[in-house]
Write a structure and sequence with these properties.
Blueprint: E1 6-9, H1 16-22, E2 26-29, H2 30-35, H3 43-52, E3 55-59, H4 62-70, E4 75-77, H5 80-94
Parallel strand pairs: 1-2, 1-3, 3-4
């Protein structure tokens, strides 16, 4: 049996954790974890927390994405390039 996917939502998208939990995902928010007393002020701390807890980091921070990539850590980068692909896909549906 595969273990459930654990997700860490970076600060900019706080609230996605709640939406993902409603969809059945095991999701956590950096912002909420911080208010619970976790020391997650730096990119390094956030990435390290995700690694230690076997989580996928969802972030808009390209430096965090690069750090995850360099260290073979799972991540989803929501950068402008990814957002642009979504816009193009939606425009193609309108054609």
């Amino acid at each position: 049996m595969s273990k459930p996917i654990k997700i860490l939502i970076d600060e900019m998208d706080d609230g996605w954790d709640e939406k993902l939990r409603k969809m059945g995902y095991d999701a956590y928010s950096v912002k909420k974890l911080r208010t619970e007393g976790h020391k997650l002020r730096t990119d390094y701390s956030v990435i390290n927390y995700a690694r230690e807890n076997d989580m996928i980091l969802i972030t808009r921070d390209s430096e965090s994405g690069q750090a995850c990539q360099e260290n073979n850590l799972p991540f989803i980068l929501l950068d402008n390039e990814e957002i642009f692909k979504i816009v193009i896909d939606k425009l193609n549906l309108i054609k």
